[in-house]
Design brief:
9 helices; Rossmann fold; 25% strand; binds flavin-adenine dinucleotide; 334 residues
């Protein structure tokens, strides 16, 4: 594939969260496999860590990589992006991948642009899909104009770099029979770094992106108090509380609960939208939920167009009825 198209060697940057590989990495490997199967290229991955071994690198092979570059060095014990960027830039210079895919996580969003600048290439951020055109060129698809249209972007420089949002691609099944090459690399430590780490923020307790059941509230709640009611329903169902953006902007609930274009993308089994109108920016984050129930007093609210079940009415009447009914059934009275 050298010279023609962009999909020859695709490099997926693995992200570690503590000891575990972030699932966005497996999603990117799934998409990477699709690309190289189309172009006849090879899928590579790179993992950086202070305690990563070949077993961890093998995980990346089981999910689709043909070759893994393994950097195991204490220099990666803190999440100082400058260290990662420096070594990823070196790797790109040496190995010359055609495409680099990075998760659009906080870490990836900080890493990608530094490497793109160092390699003097373009980066398309926050992609929601990737395709290969008839010339073997990568088409990067991402929302534009606050999510109202989709932009199809080609990068003319190499490597082509994209960050891809979590939960928009599908990982392949883990295949332990796959084999591949693990190449150990030496990290370079001596470089200019003006960043001084003063500590780490306490990790978020809520992981809304991976929740199976979400009870979400919008401006229709009227006040922060409404989230107490949603919290009761969510905990009865074993789920978590989500939100549209206005309650976050008004300080009723923390940002980590926000679903949508500028929040998290979620794919739960059940999404109950309460007092949410269904703007394109909100739908962007939850339209792929398996089952959507919408509760809204306005029968013409756009949320009903994506809902599997719609309840027209006042959420302050409907949710207490749902809570009462669930409790009655649980106690055998229903
Ligand atoms: C760059 C950008 C990024 C954005 N990112 C996001 C994002 O990530 N997530 C997001 O959600 N939005 C986002 N938005 C905002 C988005 O455009 C909408 O403004 C927002 O989604 C509307 O939220 P809402 O549905 O809660 O409020 P509204 O649109 O005001 O809807 C409230 C609904 O509640 C109903 N209602 C009122 N009272 C009751 C009641 N008692 N019982 C039942 N129903 C009731 C009303 O009929 C109405 O349909 C973004 C906007 C921009 C410009």
């Amino acid at each position: 594939m050298e010279g023609k198209g962009s999909g020859g060697k695709v490099l997926v940057v693995a992200e570690l969260r503590g000891e575990a590989i972030h699932p966005v990495t497996f999603e990117l490997l799934g998409k990477g496999r699709e690309i190289v199967e189309h172009t006849g290229g090879e899928l590579w991955s790179v993992v950086f860590g202070s305690n990563v071994d070949k077993a961890k690198a093998s995980e990346l092979i089981y999910y689709g990589a043909d070759r893994v570059f393994l950097f195991n060095d204490p220099v990666f014990s803190s999440l100082n992006t400058m260290v990662y960027a420096h070594n990823l830039t070196r790797l790109c210079r040496e190995e010359k991948p055609d495409i680099i895919l990075i998760g659009a996580t906080c870490f990836g969003r900080s890493l990608g642009p530094r490497v793109a600048a160092a390699r003097e290439t373009g980066l398309t951020a926050d992609c929601i899909d990737l395709r290969i055109d008839e010339n073997g060129e990568l088409i990067q698809i991402r929302p534009a104009f606050v999510g109202n249209i989709l932009a199809y972007i080609k990068t003319k420089t190499k490597p082509v770099m994209s960050t891809v949002r979590y939960k928009v691609m599908r990982a392949r099944e883990k295949d332990k029979s796959r084999s591949g090459l693990i190449i150990e690399k030496t990290a370079e430590k001596s470089f200019q770094d003006r960043i001084r780490l003063v500590g780490e923020a306490i990790p978020k307790k809520l992981n809304i992106a991976d929740a199976e059941i979400i009870v979400a509230g919008g401006r229709g709640l009227g006040s922060a108090e409404g989230f107490r009611l949603l919290g009761e329903l969510a905990s009865l169902l074993g789920g978590v509380v989500g939100s549209s953006r206005p309650p976050v902007d008004d300080g009723w609930i923390r940002k980590e609960h926000q679903v949508g274009y500028s929040g998290s993308i979620v794919k739960p089994r059940l999404y109950i939208a309460c007092g949410i109108s269904g703007s394109p920016q909100h739908l962007f984050g939850m339209k792929d939920a398996e089952t959507i129930i919408a509760i809204n007093s306005d029968p013409s609210a756009p949320i009903f167009r994506v809902a599997d079940y719609g309840i027209v009415g006042d959420l302050y009447q409907i949710i207490p009825l749902m809570v009462k009914e669930i409790k009655a059934r649980r106690s055998g009275l229903g």
